[in-house]
């Protein structure tokens, strides 16, 4: 275990001991932690540098209300938005970034924005009343300070009035669909596409993640093979690099061999190649307990980050620590697993230091894996109507974080459920 992981484990253990156990579905709400912004994001990436400068120019234009970024998942829209936060500096006194996702949680979104302007909403349950208070406070704050609100990963038109965001605030939104930008009244001249990387930029990103190893002559051919399968998608490039860092040449060649095999029919759509790469990384996860621990990240509500302590409690529910006799050992093991999964790009650093979250493409991939696992079948995001009760009872864990109808569970004998 690394020194940082040991310190994190000690901190979590002290937190558990010093307080009553929290509700396991209660998550930290916060704006983006500026310390987590990648400092080398633009190194060697000329197209991204040019795009960033255009975005900053438009955001600083008093005649522009909103700027939109669109592109397929995994192209780096969120990373680019974080870089914007780092570089607008004094232009905006208040900067807040919150993920919206395909199932917007207005309470969570409102809480993140409210925190940035020191507005307390925890004692207000009604979403409409929260929106009114948030709207009025933002109007008041804007009289003296400029506010930039970044709405990340927007899937559908978001009604700003229902959230409580006045149009006086400057907006930056990221989405996969250009039409979403237009539906939210972003003018075409302020909408920018974030596409896949050019070959030279993909190579630079790969090298920035993996180090000098990629420059070795004997690795040159396999690097090109790997990059050709990544298709310029930053998510795939980073996942590949992190899976191979400090590994021997034979491991690189085996990884490339796997990627060059016909893609499994279980992967379909625009992200078949990304899923194939994630599948190869997933196979490298060592140990059954660690693999199931990765599945517990599916219990994180979409768009949220979660503490490692919470994931450890999920793991306890699934008996992942049944052979561990001390709390400190369980904490260290959970922190180590989370650290290793983050280093391999299967998890991301969360909104708060020490928290983790999961990219929506990785989440979709993990859901497909968890549903196929014969020994530990997980179900996420509701119960399909076609699923009969005999099949339902075979699941060992189920996520109830979405707002679906779970009335079918009443009367069903879920003998296999562990969590």
Please give a structural write-up.
Helices cover 45% and strands 10% of the residues. The protein is α/β, with parallel strands linked by helices and 419 residues long. The chain folds into three domains: 46-193, Rossmann fold; 199-283; 288-409. Strands 2-3-4-1-5 form a five-stranded parallel beta sheet, with helices on both faces. Strands 6-8-7 form a three-stranded antiparallel beta sheet. α17 (389-392) links the parallel β9 and β10.
Offer a few descriptive terms.
10 strands; three-stranded antiparallel beta sheet; Rossmann fold; single chain; five-stranded parallel beta sheet; 3 domains; alpha/beta; 10% strand; 419 residues
- Give the name of the CATH superfamily of the largest domain: P-loop containing nucleotide triphosphate hydrolases
What is the residue-mean pLDDT, rounded to a whole number? 80
Strand order in the sheet with the most strands: 2-3-4-1-5
What is the alpha-carbon Rg in Å? 22 Å
Q: At the third CATH level, what is the topology name of the largest domain?
A: Rossmann fold
Helix content class? 40-55%
Topology:
Elements (H helix, E strand, L loop, with lengths): L2 H16 L27 H14 L6 E5 L6 H12 L5 E8 L4 H11 L10 H16 L4 E8 L5 H4 L6 E6 L2 H6 L7 E3 L5 H12 L9 H11 L3 H11 L4 H11 L12 H12 L4 H9 L9 E2 H10 L9 H17 L4 E2 L5 E3 L2 H13 L5 E2 L9 H4 L4 E2 L21
Parallel strand pairs: 1-4, 1-5, 2-3, 3-4, 9-10
Antiparallel strand pairs: 6-8, 7-8
Helix pairs in contact: 1-15, 2-3, 4-5, 8-10, 9-11, 10-12, 14-15
